[in-house]
Amino acid sequence: MIDINLLSKKYGEQTVLDIDLLNIPSGQTFGLVGNNGAGKTTLFSLILDLIEATTGEVKNNEIVVSKDEHWKNHTAAFVDEQFLIGYLTPEEYFYFVGGLRNMKKDAIKSALEPYKDFFHGEVLGQKKYIRDLSKGNQKKVGIVGTLISNTPLVILDEPFANLDPTTQIRLKKLLKEEASATGKTFLISSHDLQHITDVCDRIVVLNKGKIVRDVITSSKTLKELEAFFQEQL
Amino acid sequence: MYKKFIYLQWKSFFRAAGVASKLAQKILIGVVWAYFAFVFSGLAFIAFYGIQEEFGLDPLPTVSGFLIYAFALWIVIRYFIQKMPMVHVQPLLTLPLSKKRIVHFGLAKSTISFFNIINLFFFIPFGFILLKEDYNLWGVISWGLSIGCIILTTNFLNVLLNSQDRLLLVATAILLGLFGLQYYELFDITAFSEPVFMAPYYQPLWLLAPLALMIFSYRQSFEHFLKKLYMDSDEMRPKKEVQRATELKWLDGFGRTSFFLKNDIRLIVRNKRARMAVWMGVAFLFYGLIFMMDIYDYPLTKVFVGIFVTGGFLFSFGQFVPSWDSSYYALMMTQNVPYKEYLKSKWWLVVVGTLVSIPLASFYIFFSWESYFAILAGGIYNIGVNAHMVLLSGAYTRTPIDLNSMQRAFGDKKSFNAKTILLGIPKIFLPMFIFYIGVLVHSKLMGFILIGVVGVLGFALRNLVFDWIEKVYQNEKYQTLAAYKQKNT
């Protein structure tokens, strides 16, 4: 699904990302961990063509993202609040995002149905604009916005941050179900090692812009990751 | 402590996105300053010797009498154009600074503005002329100080007015009412205002009155902002229930463009800053009235007016495309949004705004056919050419607009400022030039027709132009995204 070749991003002299090779096959739930400044958001921004690569390129389904915009047809992403439209109600936001992907209003309504639990009655039908929702509820809106349109690739930057414990558990369940039921490819980053090992098939550790670990998740993975970050002290 | 505040302001200016363009603006604004300084100094001479020789009146009392209009007009103009100095208060709130200090600083900074200082260029030369013409020294000083107090009072009133639209309407109504009464010789306010403003000249003790007024207005705005300096006050964070569901079904006929149109209409309805663009459109409809006076009765100025009368909304809204969407630009760039659809939606908005203005402006027919032709030609030109031009210049504007927290105290509240005016100038000169050619070739009518023809031509070529603008937007994409990440600049 994603093929990265000799990709780097420099700001002046400083290299913030330097990846020789990274292939993410279709259907994988791919987890990205690393400390602040490791390059997680930079990598996602490059995959989404929000910033320009210094060298190399990202291919999304064989499409070079910086040259051809058609990757947008099968990709949905939620990185930060820059992906929300504050003056819309959550419903209007979903109709907008879904509508751009040629979904009819009724289809969007029924696509929202499975997420009622996830919203916990605090998002839909509230007659509130997104800007007036709490940070956690805003995040829920952003995440669900990437799921309703059934794109084969979903990119979520730090989806667990700002969510309450119950919702974190719900989100884990949701992501696992989506991945197994629909065969979607997920790219997820997190600072929470427990959550990411629970959800992802494969975990890549970034450190100072480079890939330092690349493992298929097993029962030992969490321990190994904890050991790795312990070493960074 | 104050040094720290000034340091913050300094940094935010030089570290903001697009510093180079800001510097260019500052230079242009400098030129505007020089112009107004010159005009105001000149006015001081005209006000004295003109009144003395043309009307045979004593200049000082006459000027004093009419000051009431100057002050009222000042309040109204300030409301629209003066920008509140920006102090980014939210991050300061938890620092060990007393709230009083933060507010004092904001208010002190508001006094150092064009609208206050420009007055000095009138009153100081005027004062020297008075002294030269043997007016009483202490009287003149006392009179000047009292005027200064009143100017500062209007300044602080403006700070208050900025949060209350109703007060503005009252000030405008009083101004127009008094002027109307005076014009039809029913009631002459200057007969009352003259002794009031002259009092400090005859008896310096009267200076205490405007001084008290100034202190009072300062205290009022101080109290106002001190109370509003909470994160959850209306000023800092508006929290409103949705009034009614707006389905906007009637827009579905526009196909994919309708998604954007719906958003844009909600943008305008639900954000004060965007609503302001609509009000500018309404205000500019009447802009032509001042140009109906004899001294402005030249065909070339009519072309100028024609562009503005129908283009108020076009300029004030279009100038900030795509900045209106700055807070969620990253979302737009990752959806399968064809730029063209996005641009078309904005284009439709400004075109519809202009189309609505043209029949609304038809009352100018009562003044002269020439005025009406100018407005008609200007409208066509706006639709055909300027609608594209504003979208194009928008690609380079890159000022992030923070819709979510725009109502913060001392915030940058006005969507219409000196910068938008400056950016609008190139869009005005071309039609004037075209008109001039028409006049040279044949007649004034020919000039108006030529402007219209160029407009129609631009309209016919719109798909070509869209392709071009699309490329510009795409080339600017990464820079625009980077600039929008930087909020509060």
CATH class of chain A: Alpha Beta
The mean pLDDT of chain B is 77
Q: How would you describe the oligomerization state of the chains in this entry?
A: heterodimer
From the spread of the alpha carbons, the general shape of chain B counts as globular
Name the CATH superfamily assignment of chain A.
P-loop containing nucleotide triphosphate hydrolases
Helical stretch count of chain B? 22
CATH architecture of chain A: 3-Layer(aba) Sandwich
Question: Can you tell me the overall shape of chain A?
Answer: globular
Roughly what fraction of the amino acids of chain A lie in strands?
25-35%
SS field, number of helical segments of chain A: 8
What is the chain-wise order of helices and strands of chain A?
A: EEEHEEEHHHHEHEHEEH
Radius of gyration based on Cα positions of chain A = 18 Å
Percent range of helical residues of chain A: 25-40%
| Rg over C-alpha atoms of chain B, rounded to the nearest angstrom | 25 Å
The topology string of helices and strands of chain B comes to HHHHHHHHHHHHHHHHHHHHHH
Largest interface: A-B, 34 and 30 residues
* Count of separate structural domains of chain A: 1
In the residues of chain B, how many domains can be counted? 2
Structure, described:
The complex is a heterodimer of chains A (233) and B (489). The radius of gyration of chain A is 18 Å and the shape is globular. In chain A, the strands form two sheets. Chain A has a six-stranded mixed sheet, with helices on both faces. The two termini of chain A are 35 Å apart. In chain A, strand 7, helix 6 and strand 8 form a beta-alpha-beta unit. Chain A has a single domain, classed as Rossmann fold (3-Layer(aba) Sandwich). Helices cover 34% and strands 26% of the residues of chain A. The model of chain A has no long low-confidence stretch (mean pLDDT 89). With 233 residues, chain A is α/β, with parallel strands linked by helices. With 489 residues, chain B is mostly helical. Chain B has two domains: 205 residues, no CATH class; 236 residues, no CATH class. Chain B has 22 helices and no strands. In chain B, helix 3 packs antiparallel against helix 8. Chain B is globular, with a radius of gyration of 25 Å. The two termini of chain B are 22 Å apart. In chain B, 36% of the residues are buried.
